[in-house]
Specification:
Pfam families: DUF3443 (PF11925). InterPro entries: DUF3443. The chain is mainly beta. The protein folds into two domains: about 150 residues, Cathepsin D, subunit A, domain 1 (Beta Barrel); about 140 residues, no CATH class. It is about 5% helix and about 30% strand. The protein has four helices and 24 strands. Strands 1-10-2-7-4-3-11-12 form an eight-stranded mixed β-sheet, with no helix packed on it. A five-stranded antiparallel β-sheet has the order 14-13-23-24-15, with helices on one face.
Length: about 350
Amino acid sequence: MPDVLVDTGSSGLLLRRSALQGLKGLEPADSGEYGFRNRYVSAPEYGALTPAWIGFGQLYTQVPIGIGLLGSDGEQPDAGGGANEADGEAGLLKHFNGILGIAPRPTGCSTGADCTCAKATEVAQYYRRVPGSDGPVWQGPQAPPAYELSNPVAALPSGYEDGFVLRIDTPDHAALQAGVESGTLLLGFERWREPLFGQQAPRIPLFSSSWWFAATNGEPGQPPDLLTLPDSGSAAILAPARYKPASADTSAAPARQLPLFFDMPGAESAAPYGPFTVELAEAGSAAIEGRPLHTLATRFHDGDLLMSLGMPFFYGRTIAFRLPEDPRAVSDRAPEPGCLMIAPGPQGA
């Protein structure tokens, strides 16, 4: 299926129901027992859940896993747990047939050692359609494993299930203005690690879920001051407002070159790994005049800690994600933790 957004900030495959017309085995709309509501920052997405085999070319998941079907599935749960008639294909999927969520966490919302999701109706991601006095209503349960949204890469055969590499080409300005980007998704982590990064490339340890610690000061011993999320599903860098380019006149504010150093706890050297430069500019400033907005897209928020590294961070880089091993899958050793590896640009054959 073409036009599926690769998203390293979420887990689970979401597809337009309308793009699957004619597919054998597709359940009729309004028949699904389980539904979901993805609480993206920019827009909610609603849909039905169903188990399915997922293929990347000729490589398929070893078992069916839960996917989300968006659109034309009747009433969907709203933020308060009631129902509305909003079309699940509105919002994020306006220009895509789906979202391939491959973040380095096993499922879309599971947290903690017990791998459970929030069940309170007003905050739940998953819902079950149950009979009500005025027709079906949605309640927020823990979805059965066969229905829960999860990272499809983790369900691939051995040798491909441990992670992936995302290679995004240096931007071609004319192509970007036409809304076209080019890059490659390579499946597997260890199989590509040495050919693309060499034996000595640092592994940046995963802190939690999909987050890594980073700092804007690379001196050894300096504590990290940011939690960063490499998020290919976002078109912009989302940064704390304290990093806005300084200027009394917004229209004359320059772009800011912000160095990032990733924290390396447990490494032989205490020095953070970097710098990796992030260029920030306010919308409407003189810094972006005559330049493609894609490469400078920045939004600012009032917090101090979180920075989402959207597509401008990926341009011209090769980034590998090692998925954390499931502790239940290994018994004779410690499970492999998740990590990140970054090269300055597309490398290898």
